[in-house]
Structure formats: C-alpha cells, structure tokens
Amino acid sequence: MRPLKLEMQAFGPYAGIEIIDFTQLESRTMFVISGKTGAGKTSIFDGISFAIYGKASGEDRNGADLRSHFAKDDLLTEVSLTFQLRDKIYYICRSPQQERKKARGDGYTTVNAKAELYLVDESGAKKLLAANVRDTEEKIKEIIQLDANQFRQILMIPQGDFRKLLTSDSKEKEVILQRLFHTEQYKKIEVMLKDKAGLLKNEVEGGINQRSQKLRDIFTNGNDEIESALAEPVPSDTIILPLLQKITGEMSQRLAELEKEIEIRQKQRDEAKRKVDEAENILNEMNNRSALEKQKALLDEKKSSIDEKRKAVDLARRAGNLAHQENICQRLKKEIDDKASRKRKVEEDLAFTKKEKITADENLKREEDRRGKREELHAEMSRLESLREDVLSFSSRKADIQRLELEAKDYRKKLNEQKEKATEWRELVEKQQDELNKLRQLQDKNITLKEEKLRIEQAIDHLHQLAVSIEKEKTANKLSVQREKELQLANAKTKDALETLKHIEEKWLSGHAAILAGKLENGCPCPVCGSAEHPSPAHASGDYVSEEDFESAKKDARIIEEQLAEIRQEWMKAKADVELCEKTVFEKLDATKALLMDVNLEDATLHLQKLQKKQQELSIELKSNEMKTSKIPEKDTKITQLSQGLKDLSAKMDETSEKERETVHQYVEIKAALQSLALNLPEGIETKEQYESRLSVLQKEIKQLDDIYKQAQDVCSKLNEQLAAQKMALQNMEEEIEELNNSLNTEREKFLHQLHQEGFTTYGEYAESKKDSAWIQTTEEEIKAYGEEYRSVTDRLKDYEERLKGIERPDLEKLNEEFGEQEKMLLSMSAQFSNLKMNINKNEDIQLDVQQLNLQIKELEKQYELIGHLSDITRGQNTYKLTFERFVLASFLDDILAAANGRLLKMTSGRYQLLRKKERSKGNVQSGLELLVFDQYTGQERHVKTLSGGESFKAALSLALGLSDVVQEHAGGVSLETMFIDEGFGTLDSESLDQAIEALMEIQSSGRLVGIISHVPELKERIDARLEVFAGQSGSSTEFVFLS
C-alpha cells in the first residue's frame, strides 16, 4: 500500500482542510516528518490509519477523540485517503460519529459514522465498492489482507508499538505470518490427514466389529470350548477359526450318517404309501359302481319324458315350414294398418290447415290497414338521428363534469391522507433515529469496553508472566544458595588440599636436600650454593616423601582447584541468573504497573483474580451489547427507506395538489359549454343513455310493425302451399291401401293351402306346435345326451362288476395310520438334516467372510499405520510439538531472521543476532515462533525482551525490514510497499543512528516508501525530503521541504 494523497478536515490539530500530496515526493522513497512536540506529526499517521481502519495509529486514541478542538461547529470531522495497491488506485473517505450543532435552536445532534470506498480508474472516474462502515471494513480487509493491529506491527509502527512484533508470542506471530504467507493450505493438509486417519481407524474398528458379529453368529453345536471363546468382549479369530473348522468337520460327518438313515426311512415310507394308494383305488371303484347303479335307475325313470319330447320336436319342425308364408301375410297386414293410420293423420292435418288459412287472411288484412302508423315512426326516427352528435357531446361533457367532480374530491382526500401519512412517517423517522443514536452510543461504548477488555487481558497476561518470572526467580535463588554452599565447601576442601600439598612439598624438599647433602664432599662445590665448605648439611628426617608422592599430591590439588573453578563458574552463572531473573521480575512488574498502577509483588494474585472476574463481566456485557448493536444496519436501512419514502411522498403531494388545480379549471370550462348545448336538445333527452333508449324504443316499434306485416304475408303464402301438398298426399295414400289389400288376400290363400299339406287341421293346432329354433336345438341335444349317458352308464357299470368280482373292502384307516407314522419320522429326520446342512453352510460362509475381513483389516491397518503416523506428526505430536503449518511458518520466520540479521549485525557492530527459539515451551503453550537474541560478548542466548531500548529499536527495525524483504520476495497477497516509523531513533547513539539510517537507505532501491517521525537532527540532515508540521493558534498545517 502506497499513500498518494491524504485529506484531513477538522481532524486532530488540523482545524480546516489539510491536504498532504505524497506524489510531490516524486522518486524519493524516504522522508522525515518534523515539527514541534504537539504540532500534529503523529496525527498524520492517525489520519492514514483512521481512513483505512477507522482507528488511530495508537491504541490510546479512538475515532471519536480525533475531532479538532480548533474546528468550527458546522465543520464535520472527515478524513480521505487516495492510495495505490498492486497497480490499482483506491479512494476511501471516513467520518467518525460526532456531535454537530443544530441548525435551529440550541443543543447538538448526533451524526453517525460513515465510510465509503471507491476504485479509481485511469480517467479518474470512481466506482463505488462499499457504501457503509461495515461493508468498507470487510472490503478493506479483503484488499489489504491485514487488520489494524497487524498493520501497526508491520507497516505503521507508532510510538510504543515498535517492539510488539519483536516481542510478541508464538500465537500472535502465527496470525500475522499466516496472513502474510497464505499457509492455510498446510492447515488443510493437517485436517485432511486427520480426517483420513480417523476414517481409516473407524473402518478398522468397523471391520473388527463386523468380524466379531460374524463370529458370534457361529453355530457352536454345543461345543463348550468355542462358546467360551465367543463369550469374550472381542472374540479372537485365531482361537475360534481352528475350533470352527473342527466342529464343522464333526457336523459334516453326522450329516453323512443322517443322509443314509433318511434313505432307508424313505423306502419304508414309499411302501406304506403304495398300500394306501392301492386301497384308495379299490374303494373309489366300489363307490363309483354304487353311484352308477343309482344313476341308471334315474335314467330308466326319465325314459317316458324323453319320448314325449321327441314327438314335440317333430311337430315343431313341420310348423317351422309354414313360418315364411305366415310372415308375408303379417307384414302385408301391418303395412295396410300403418297406411290407414297415416291417412287419418293427413285428414286431420288438412282440416287444421284450412282453419289456420282463414285466420292468416284476417291478420294480413289488419296489418295492411296500419301502413300510416309505420310511416310516422320512420319520420320520428330520422329527426332523432340528426341530433346524435349534440346528444353525445352533451352526454360526454356531463360525464366529464361528474368525473371531474369526483376526481377533485379524490385528490383532496388523497392530499389529506398523504399529509397525515407524512406526519406519521416524520414521527417514525425521529423515533427510529433516537433508537439508532442510542445503539450508536452503545456501539461506541462497546469500543471502550473492548479496549478495556483488551487492557485487562494484557494485564492478565502480564500478571501471568510476572508470576512465572517470580517462580523462576525463586528457583534461581534456591539454586544460587545451593551453589554458594557448594562453593564454600569447595573452598574449604581446596584450602585443605593446598595446605596438605605445602606440607608434602616441604617434606619432599627436606628429603631431597638430605639426599644432596649425603653426596657432598669437602673441597667440592655445593650444587646449590657453590660453596666448597659444608658446615651444616641437611639430615634426612623420619617422614621421607618421594618425588612420586609429591607429584601425586600436586595432581590431586590441581584436580580439586579445577573442581573449585567449575563450582565457582556455576555459582557465578547461578548468581547471574538470579540477577537476570530479578531484572526480568522488575521489568515485568514495571510493564504490569504501566497497566495497573497499584500492583505490587505481594498482591499480584489478588489483582489477577479481580481482573479475571472483571474480564468475565465485560465479556457478558459485550455479548449483550453486540446482540443489540447487531440491529444497527437494520435500523439504518429502515431510516434510509423512511427518509426516501418521505421524499417520495412529498413529491407525490405536490403532484396531487397540481392535479387538483387542473381538475377544477377543466370543470369550469366544460360546465359553460354544457349549458349552451342543453338549449338545443329535446326535453327528456340529455344523456347518451336517454338518447340511445329513445332511439332503441323507436327502432323496436318500427321493427315490430314491419316484422308482423311480413310475418302475416309469409304465413298466408306458406299455408297455401301446405294445403296443396296435403290434398295430393291424401289421394296417393288411398290408392296404395287398395293395392295392399289385394296382395294380402292372395297370400292368405297360399298359407291355408300349405297348412293342410303339413298335416294341421286348424290354425290353433299349428299355433300350439310352433317352437323357436333355440328350443328345438336344446331339446334335441337333451335327447341325444340322454341316449349317450344311458349307454355310457350301462357299459361302465358292467366293467366295474367284472373288475370287483371276488374283492373284499380294504381297511383304509389302518393303512393311513401306518403311512402317517412313517411320514412323521421321515419329516423329523429331514428337518434335522436341513438344519444341520444349513448350520454347516452358515459356519463355512462365516469362516470365508472372517478370512476376507482379516485381509481387509490387515490392508486398512497397513494404511492407517502410515496415514495415522503422518497425521500425528502434522498435528504436533512430535519431538518439538510443532504442527505442519507452524513448521512452514517457522521456515518463513527463519528466512525473515536471515534477512533481518544482515542489518542487525551491521547496526550492532556484529554483537547481536536474532534466533528462533527451538526448544519446547513448558506445558501446552504454543511455541516455535518466539525470538531469542545471541550476544557475541557473552556467547549466550537470551530472550529479546532483555534488550535495552536502543537495542530493541535496532532489532525491531531489522525485523520489520527483513519481514518486508521476504514478503516481497515471496510475492504474497500482502503488499508491503510502505513503512511508517514514529520515533525510536532518539534512543540511538551517533554510531547506531548512522547504522540505522544506512539500513533504511538500502531499501530505497526496492522502491518502498519510508516515513519517519523524529526530532533527531542528524536524521533530518541525512534525508533530503521533510514534511514540516507547523503549529499555530488556529490549528496546524503541513508543507513538504526538499533539500535538493
């Protein structure tokens, strides 16, 4: 992110509109912000931070506190920033919630916070990306990919915050590095491996459960050994399968024996069944013989009835030969009767038509006499049609009058309703605005509560760290006391050893002198003093010490001295650890006192308990408040909708009022024209309906008269034609009837002749013998069936008599009992066979299934062994308790430290080097990303928190520059094109300042912009671009100053 233009209005010390155009820097990539204390240097960083995130650059300032006290009441606080990010230009504008003096009356009204974000194209046109605070915050986080705290730790480092990235714990660093290097994919790998391992584990357990279930389904056949094995919580297949094979073999052997027994029993059953079937056949034949004897007796009784039916069939067939001639006579008789009936109907119609003709002639005469009436009505019709246009115009204008009256009334009613609705909406807007203001105040309170909660959490963290440091100090003191005691003992031991050595050395020297004295000769020079005389030669004492004893004593003394040196070194180290722990305790105490003024070492635990209780209370209050403030967007939207509705309603009211005036004007004009037309119209005809009604009545009367006259003419003509047709039809019918009577007499004579030929003497005898063909056919079939049945019964009865001759009646009940016993025994044995066969098949299937399951479980266990191991490693179950993602982040951090150390070594003249703490932290504390510093002077590592102020600044600056290098190198989604630093250089000596400036100068080649707030003169002299901030009585102002 690179700022292009910052505009601040009524913001901080800037009373009016202050514009800082960063494009004036042109190709310069470093500038100093200079000015007196309180002039507004940090407010520039606050403005940039507030524009982007709605928060100041420091935690001790919030948006509501940034309004300028120099500003006029009617000038709202507002900040806008134009910035470039990844070759795109964005424009963001924000204003905090603030109080504005009312335009009318006394007092102030609350103006809600606003935020808008735009994308600026090459032509300067702006495209809206977000239009409210919430949407803008989400969009900014998406674009910059850093939240406000991360922004302060990486890009804009305000006063007091420069060391936070350096000294933050592993968890805080992890959040920052995750965002910078997009390591979510490694977390997904952890989750994927965990899920896959869990799935494989579940599949293995499922396979084992399935195998156990299969084993429990085994048919044990009463085997105690396998039943005992199956009673275990998890049956062992290695024990059960051999036993299963054994009992299955025993069952198969029993199955073969049972199969032979069933075969013998089946033969016995079949023999019993044969005897039963033979007896049943004999009994059936005996029963059939009895039935045939009864059937023959019945047929003999029926013989006379069959003979009578044969005679009736013969008469019916002879009567059937006369049916055709009889039908001819009946048809002719029916035709004569039909013709006579139609003749009577025509005679009746002819008489009726003659009467109708007389009436029609009278009606035609009467209608011809009404000719004058018809002509009068046609004349009136012509006059009425000539007035059509005047009537229609009058009717239309009268309708317009009525319509306009109603419209004017409706407009007045609508206008009143709109006024009432507008009043109601205004009251509703005021009510919603009041509720929204309360929620905004609650939202502001939430910010304060969150800040207080954060402060408390920080204090709790400091108190925890203080407690840990106190424990470490106690442990160090105990160790120091122990080492001091060990040192005292070692000193005493060394003193004794040296005294002993001295005593041994004296004895050794004395003995050595005696040896030399023993070798002296008078006149020969002494090898020690050179004298030729030896007045007092040394004499050997009783305690002689050899040279080997003396060397051994020296060696023992040297070992004890070395041990003393080691113990003294351990004592000094323990003492240094105590001092370091004491220093850490007091530093932790000072850090804690910065948050809690009244805390001391004695009541730290009490403070911790109170703060934890307060933290819990704040969490509950925050949760309650956030549930309430979540309704702010809904309220805001509703107020906007209501306000827009009021605006639309006002426009509608103006429109309604205008329409009412136009309606009244039209009413006056049309009413005058209506009065003029009324003078020319007939009485009673003013409306179109009255006109149409009168016209319709005339048309109906004329049509009715014309229709009646024409109808009278048509009726007379039609009746004349009908009379002629009826007379002709009557004559034709009389001729046809006479011809049909002649034919009927001829056919009757033919019928009587055929009647006598068939043997009938009278028509009654013939009529009695007539039968339909269905009866004849049925009767003949009955006679034929009787004959066939009689023959069949006689023949079969004779056959049975011959077959049963000499045979006694068998005892079927006894034979069935014998067969039933055999069948029952066979069924029992078959059931045993089937059950045994089924259980054998079941056990064999179970054995195959279990063997298959064992193969599957073995394969799954093999997979789980690999995947589960990988999952455990990636989830941190390893020597260093590092997850896969944190391992990758640690690698990135190593790259950052490598880049940072190049600068830190230069700035500290090779003394300090940043290291990543690789040892595991105690307990379950997340580790792997904390920093240590290696001090070349002591050759030891220590925590970065032990660095002095100036040393911390150098380390933090190196780390920030190294982070920027590595992020740019990896081309992540986060763009680090800018860095702002507020103070810190004042803690450096002259040499360190030169080294820091040199490090900052090196990054200019990458094109990154560095802005520094500093009072250090040497820094101003070395950097050729300054943003001067001038303080005045009416507010501050800014100006870029360039040295070249």
TrEMBL record:
GO terms for molecular function: ATP hydrolysis activity. Residues 5-302 form the Rad50/SbcC-type AAA domain. Keywords: Coiled coil. Residues 248-370, 401-459, 601-659, 688-750, 776-870 form a coiled coil. GO terms for biological process: double-strand break repair. It comes from the Bacteria. InterPro entries: P-loop_NTPase, Rad50/SbcC_AAA. PANTHER family: ABC TRANSPORTER ABCH.3. Heterodimer of SbcC and SbcD. Belongs to the SMC family. SbcC subfamily. This is Nuclease SbcCD subunit C. It comes from Siminovitchia terrae.
